[in-house]
Write a structure and sequence with these properties.
The chain is mostly helical. It is 73% helix and 0% strand. Helix 2 (18-33) packs across helix 5, helix 4 (52-58) crosses helix 5 and helix 6 packs antiparallel against helix 12. The model is unreliable at 1-15 and 228-239 (pLDDT under 50).
């Protein structure tokens, strides 16, 4: 079986070998129907190869599923990792200055929103993560340790700095979970928003209408800021 560690984004972009095609097939199919809802035949057909290729490259369906999660987490980390690093470093350097913390929080939320809702790479890779969070498998630790735990930790550091609490405080950790749902849960429920608004998806104008509202909610949920920066700006771009 080929070494999974060799499948880096550069290879994903440079070559379309069978292992890469199987991962791409898995991203689509596992995201749409979950692990149990997809057969090895469907995974192989999606990659335009035969079933034996799954065993040859990954050892079986479950190992392919884990490889899909690892690839997704690596790509998402490359997209949002710099945002988390900037926030973490900024919080450390702010020394509790609430004006600085407010600016950092707002900037993070705005950038997160644009990446999470507007980048097609993120949109394609979110469904498998959502399914794994809602119905965790034995491979849940791939997404937790690989990304979600880091997101929790960084948001917890921001919340602790804003409220003068220790990051290990139990109440603070619960509040961090609530804040997680401001920045992450918004993605989970996008279909509800689309139905409510009469949208068939996001476009640039719609995302830019969401950005200030979401960033206000994020800042206030942390206990920073007293006055929304956005208001309701202009008219949200057309329905349909």
């Amino acid at each position: 079986m080929k070494n999974r560690a060799s499948l880096r984004p550069s290879r994903m972009k440079a070559r379309k070998d069978t292992s890469v095609l199987l991962i791409e097939s898995g991203i689509v199919l596992f995201g749409a129907r979950g692990y149990d809802g997809v057969t090895t035949r469907e995974l192989a057909d999606g990659a335009r190869t035969n079933i034996s290729s799954i065993k040859y490259h990954f050892g079986g369906k479950e190992a392919l599923y884990r490889a899909v999660l690892e690839e997704i987490i690596q790509e998402i980390t490359e997209l949002v990792g710099p945002l988390l690093l900037a926030l973490r470093n900024g919080v450390a350097e702010a020394n509790g200055n609430r004006d600085v913390l407010t600016r950092l929080a707002r900037q993070f939320a705005q950038n997160w929103c644009r990446v999470a809702l507007g980048d097609p790479r993120t949109q394609k890779r979110i469904p498998p993560i959502v399914r794994e969070v809602i119905q965790p498998s034995r491979h849940f630790t791939v997404i937790y340790n690989g990304f979600l735990r880091v997101l929790y930790d960084v948001l917890g550091e921001l919340l602790a700095a804003a409220n003068g609490q220790a990051a290990v405080d139990e109440e603070l950790q619960i509040r961090t979970h609530i804040i997680m749902n401001v920045v992450w849960g918004f993605i989970y429920t996008e279909s509800l928003l689309w139905h409510q608004m009469g949208w068939n998806g996001y476009n640039r104008n719609r995302i830019e209408a969401i950005v200030p509202v979401l960033s206000d909610a994020f800042v206030l949920s942390i206990g920073l800021g007293t006055k929304p920066a956005s208001g309701v700006q202009g008219q949200i771009a057309g329905r349909g």
